[in-house]
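Lab notebook, bench 4. Still working through the backlog of constructs that have no structural model yet. Next entry is a single chain of 78 residues. Request: give me the structure tokens for it.
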Amino acid sequence: MAVWILTQMKRWGYVKGEVSYKAIAEEVFLVSDAKKHMAELDMKAPATSYARFKVMGREFDPAQPEGYLAGFAIKRAA
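Model written out:
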């Protein structure tokens, strides 16, 4: 989900230039901490941190964030 959030930040102009999606997701959103806290709450964490999922009917593949972004006609005006 962190990679998807970053694509939206780039789409709307909050992030500029090249983005290292996976590195930022792991450093800022702290997947390892999330899994630890989920375990403390007796919640099962997803098997993978980078699974495909659907958002508003569109499939998002965290391995292809730029391709996902390119598929939108509506973006922030320059």
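Notes after review: The mean pLDDT is 87. The longest strand covers residues 53-55. Flag for follow-up if needed.
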